[in-house]
Amino acid sequence: MLELYGTKLPSRLLLGTAQYPSPAILADAVKASGASAVTVSLRREMAGGGRGGEKFWSLIQSLRLHVLPNTAGCHSVKEAVTTAKMAREIFGTNWIKLEVIGNHDTLQPDVFGLVEAARILCGDGFAVFPYTTDDLVVAERLLGMGCKVLMPWCAPIGSALGPVNVTALRSMRGHFPDVPLIVDAGIGRPSHAALVMELGFDAVLLNTAVARAAEPVGMARAFGKAVDAGREAYRSGLLEPRDVAVPSTPTIGQAVFQ
Amino acid sequence: MKLTVNGEAHEIATATLAELLAALDYEGNWLATAVNSELVHATERTLFQLKDGDQIEILSPMQGG
């Protein structure tokens, strides 16, 4: 069973909660996916008792899943650290999906700021889930700061491109055989999720591909199945590709017709 | 006293962060507050003295990926 910072999760799918057509569809999609954890965020609350945040938080609590707050939208170490502390205050968890964004167009992580923010937050007792690239040196630094989980992107957030550098992901798995690795960002299709699970990744975190599907509940179910299928395939031992044909039907005893 | 609350300018005569929240009709235990980019715990708001020019952020849960 997947274990993250000492917490065992029955599912290897983590689902985002943004961009769904309605709160009811969000709740149904989460349930259909079988996800063990959902990501949430923080934003400015409107004055005047709007209570929008309260309604959303009540919905999330009713799902009875693990909550992974994020620092989405933060572009500096200071922003990310303060947001993480505020998230811990509200959500009552020391889990934090740490995002320090470095580029407006690609939303790729500022890996230098990420490492520094991870140092501060790990030292403050947070269980840091860093949204990072597939760079091995950055991964080493994050582990050195105290991260026990790594969350590399496989493509830019929301792009739906799927794994654009399978070789790098495979290399990451090979270099860190004992570190939980979660592919976060860029997954567009269930087949993408299955592929990274076949590579041996421990879990998948996605949002847009489900939330923006024509039928989010059906897509959530499809992703749940894909993650399970990919994991079981990895554990069952995949056949390595070959350049030559090998007959699957035995040739011994085959009739010879002149 | 001039304060900036969630990016908006306010001229308000409140001494503490708790009083500010009440004056602007923020309520509930699902809010997190920061003053000048530093977290102020819910338990500290009653005693936290505001001063002219403070920047206050009041955040609540929302959807995220």
TrEMBL record, chain A:
GO terms for molecular function: thiazole synthase activity. It comes from the Bacteria. Its EC number is 2.8.1.10. The active site is at 97 (schiff-base intermediate with dxp). InterPro entries: Aldolase_TIM (IPR013785), Thiazole_synthase_ThiG (IPR033983), ThiG (IPR008867). It catalyses: [ThiS sulfur-carrier protein]-C-terminal-Gly-aminoethanethioate + 2-iminoacetate + 1-deoxy-D-xylulose 5-phosphate = [ThiS sulfur-carrier protein]-C-terminal Gly-Gly + 2-[(2R,5Z)-2-carboxy-4-methylthiazol-5(2H)-ylidene]ethyl phosphate + 2 H2O + H(+). GO terms for biological process: thiamine diphosphate biosynthetic process. 1-deoxy-D-xylulose 5-phosphate binds at residues 158, 185-186, 207-208. The keyword Transferase applies. The keyword Transferase applies. It is found in: Cytoplasm. PANTHER family: THIAZOLE SYNTHASE. Catalyzes the rearrangement of 1-deoxy-D-xylulose 5-phosphate (DXP) to produce the thiazole phosphate moiety of thiamine. Sulfur is provided by the thiocarboxylate moiety of the carrier protein ThiS. In vitro, sulfur can be provided by H(2)S. Belongs to the ThiG family. This is Thiazole synthase. It comes from Mesorhizobium tianshanense.
From TrEMBL, chain B:
Pfam families: ThiS. It comes from Mesorhizobium tianshanense. This is Sulfur carrier protein. Gene3D superfamilies: 3.10.20.30. NCBIfam families: thiS.
